[in-house]
Write a structure and sequence with these properties.
Layout lengths: L2 H8 L2 H8 L5 H23 L8 H20 L6 H19 L7 H26 L4
Helix pairs in contact: 1-5, 3-4, 3-6, 4-5, 4-6, 5-6
Length: 138
């Protein structure tokens, strides 16, 4: 499934998933997921905002690790989350991970920032859509 198709399927789907969840903690689960999505989006924005002209490889690695940790937190708080919504964010996070993993060891910060930027932007878009579907505040 293309990322665009996954994003289209995901719009609004998470609200129904939470509405169908009989758990008394559904609003707490939604709030935690929103918090985790906010952090993931912030981390993805920071990664995509690194300047290829001045980013060091350590800065890119640190920003990438923040995104990876953010995705781990999101994936742990998605028990009641709509599968299509999760798949859209997972697909974008996986694309970013693959791009990172495919970077040669001698990649400069500028090269890494340039190659990771489109993937980080796709992740940002997927997270934005998930947040809209969940009606996250802010």
């Amino acid at each position: 499934m293309s990322a665009a198709a996954a994003l289209l399927l995901s719009v609004g789907g998470a609200t129904a998933a939470f509405a169908a969840d009989p758990s008394p903690n559904q609003s707490a689960a939604a709030a935690q997921l929103c918090t985790d999505l906010n952090q993931l989006r912030s981390d993805a924005t920071a990664l995509s905002g690194l300047s290829p002209a001045s980013a060091t490889k350590d800065q890119v690695k640190s920003a990438y690790n923040d995104v990876k940790d953010g995705w781990d937190a999101v994936s742990k708080s998605t028990a009641a989350w709509n599968a299509a919504q999760k798949d859209a964010v997972k697909s974008a996070a996986d694309g970013l991970k693959k791009t990172w993993d495919d970077l040669p060891g001698n990649t400069t910060g500028a090269e890494a920032a340039t190659k990771l930027k489109p993937q980080a932007q796709m992740l940002d878009t997927a997270v934005k859509s998930a947040r809209t579907g969940l009606k996250c505040p802010g």
